[in-house]
Amino acid sequence: MADSLRIQTVPHPFRFRENPDNSLNRLIVEAVNRMGEFGDDAEANYQTVLEALRQRSDEVVAIIAAEYRDLSEAQYLDRWSLVQLLVELRHPSSLSLLNEVLSNQIPEERSQDTDSFTTVGEEVMIKTTAVEALTQMSAQQNQDALDLLLRYTQHENFSIKRACVQGYLAYGGEGATERLLEFLPEQDRFILDIRREDVRNVPQPRGENYLRREESGDTPRLQTRRD
């Protein structure tokens, strides 16, 4: 049938070509899998894996950066998952990748049916999650993260611009509003009055791929949906 749903179980999408057979690779995949888990112990299990990753944050961020760059444009959920890990890790070494994510131009719309799926929307969600990572580091008084937030208040996409303004306003300290008023063009200054939205309340990328755990074992698998 033309409209039937076919579900295929394939290995996880990360290749780890620079770090084969590394225990950190397995932890990264487990963390990505646990992002979407439900249940009484789901959050505790997720935090346990995150804590293990934080113990070696420098190495983990380097692996995440290599894997992010190795993914194809269309792997929206996989790319978002890696950026979300950077939000959780809050490590200064991730600033280079976050800057790269935000500086890359949003590709033109690929979807033929934007009412049900929009690739530009997926890209914006990835980038606003990168802004959230900068915001979390700014909360820890990381001046480089604050500087990047200020830079990307000039972003051409409104959602990204707004997230940067609100993040900078929240953690820029005394004089943040005045600096933003000087930095923003007059037509954008109304953003200062918009309430900041928690990224957890914003829809996240869907894409066509998502990670799940097999019921029959602990091996991470990527489930692929095709219409």
SSE order and pairing:
Layout: E1 6-11, H1 23-34, H2 42-54, H3 57-70, H4 76-89, H5 95-103, H6 119-138, H7 143-151, H8 158-171, H9 176-183, E2 209-213, E3 220-226
Antiparallel strand pairs: 1-3, 2-3
Describe it for me?
The chain has a domain of 147 residues. Strands 1-3-2 form a 3-stranded antiparallel β-sheet. It has 227 residues and is mainly α. The longest helix has 20 residues.
Distance between the termini: 10 Å
From the spread of the alpha carbons, the general shape counts as: globular
Sheet bearing the most strands, described? 3 strands, antiparallel
Broad structural category: mainly alpha
- How large, in whole angstroms, is the Cα Rg? 18 Å
**Strand residue percentage:** 5-15%
Quick overview of this protein structure:
Helix content is 50%, strand content 8%.
Task: From the structure above, extract its key features.
three-stranded antiparallel sheet, disordered C terminus, mainly alpha, single chain, 9 helices, 8% strand, 227 residues, globular
